[in-house]
Write a sequence for this structure.
């Protein structure tokens, strides 16, 4: 049984382990091994993970005592953005991602009208998951230019 809860600082190592185990699988063949290594060092360091737990909304999915997935939300410009949604490879396809996404939406402040995320344009598996869960093309986006490798997606929370 999967239980989703708010992450605590004591979860830093387990949350980091989700990234370390998931990133190479999720992005293998889509981006360079060097980018994967750099991303793990930058966005999944103990300090970075602790910072997001303390300063954003980070939820974890637990199966018994083990954390098997995580989702992280934060603000960019005037938007709520889902920065991370990762599930351990051996737990994918079992409803963990959907449970995390649903809990993330519920954790947003009341009155939030949309949720954005950025995704690699070549990550068909992730794009399919997000589209199946109501995300579409973003109408408005933060000022950050994503270039040609990433795209913004949007979930309208007024109709979902």
């Amino acid at each position: 049984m999967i239980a989703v809860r708010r992450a605590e600082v004591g979860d830093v190592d387990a949350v980091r382990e989700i990234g370390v185990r998931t990133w190479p699988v999720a992005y293998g063949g889509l981006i360079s091994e060097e980018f994967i290594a750099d991303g793990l060092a930058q966005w999944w360091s103990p300090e970075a993970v602790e910072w997001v737990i303390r300063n954003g909304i980070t939820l974890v999915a637990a199966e018994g005592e083990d954390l098997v997935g995580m989702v992280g939300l934060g603000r960019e410009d005037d938007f709520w953005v889902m920065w991370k949604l990762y599930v351990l490879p051996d737990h994918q396809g079992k409803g963990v991602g959907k449970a995390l996404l649903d809990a993330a939406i519920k954790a947003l402040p009341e009155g939030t009208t949309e949720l954005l995320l950025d995704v690699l344009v070549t990550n068909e598996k992730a794009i399919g998951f997000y589209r199946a869960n109501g995300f579409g093309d973003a109408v408005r986006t933060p000022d950050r230019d994503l270039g040609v490798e990433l795209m913004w997606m949007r979930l309208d929370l007024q109709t979902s």
